[in-house]
Design a protein that fits this description.
Layout lengths: L15 H8 L5 E7 L8 E7 L17 H14 L2 E7 L1 H7 L1 H14 L7 E5 L9 E5 L7 H24 L5 H4 L5 H10 L20 H9 L1
Helix pairs in contact: 2-5, 3-4
Length: 224
């Protein structure tokens, strides 16, 4: 079925696209979103969330619009109230090997495949569909228009932030717990000073300029 038949009319509620999908006969509708496409370090993390029919969790919206404490509390509610939640991860080496778009799609596919209830419809934030043989609808700014996608954005963001906090302990000195791998001025300065560490994305501007001179160190770190 061509889910573009949903149309692009403005969404009136956060359940607009879920309701349209159910009118087309779909039952297990998963919202899919990612966190971490832009950072210079760390993984890209995707989440897939299936909520009960008609279910609204007050406050669930685009994770970027929420405070950290609000995201954490909503994370717990989503995990408790969702029919199923799946998470997929593509590490920095995968990003460098196949590019950030393909790594993101791979993480999304992994998230969907890890759901305990397999979906018959995907609502995906953005413009790129996965290779999964499932009916799919891409929605620009979907994390602000769909409850399921917004829930997935929160799960992905909180999961990735917690991973970066652990990496901060493993690779001290780069400030990962604070900037979460994004290209802040302080992070760029630390890369220039210390060189990249094993979770930096060596193909990204701001990192690749400093990768050659630290290649030997990085290989040693990868081999343990």
């Amino acid at each position: 079925m061509n889910l573009d038949l949903f149309g692009e009319e403005p969404a009136h509620t956060m359940l607009h696209f879920e309701t349209l999908a159910r009118k087309h006969g779909f039952i297990a509708i998963a919202g899919v979103d990612e966190a971490g496409r832009g950072p210079l370090a760390g993984p890209v993390v995707a989440a897939a969330v299936i909520l009960p029919e008609g279910h609204i969790i007050p406050g669930v919206n685009d994770s970027k619009k929420l405070t950290e404490s609000r995201r954490n509390s909503l994370y717990d509610r989503i995990m408790s109230e969702a029919v199923s939640v799946g998470v997929g991860v593509s590490d920095s080496q995968t990003v460098d090997r196949i590019n950030i778009l393909q790594a993101t799609l791979r993480a999304m596919e992994s998230a969907v495949n890890s759901l305990t209830v397999y979906p018959d419809c995907l609502l995906i934030d953005g413009i790129s569909k996965t290779s999964l043989a499932i009916n799919q609808k891409t929605i620009k700014k979907g994390d602000s228009l769909s409850q399921s996608i917004a829930a997935a954005s929160i799960i992905a963001k909180v999961t990735r932030d917690r991973m970066m906090e652990k990496y901060d302990l493993e690779y001290p000195g780069y400030g990962f717990a604070g900037h979460k791998g994004y290209g802040s001025a302080s992070h760029l300065a630390l890369i220039a000073s210390l060189g990249p560490c094993p979770i930096h994305r060596l193909t990204f501007r701001g990192v690749k300029e400093h990768a050659v001179q630290s290649k030997g160190v990085m290989c040693e770190l990868h081999l343990g």
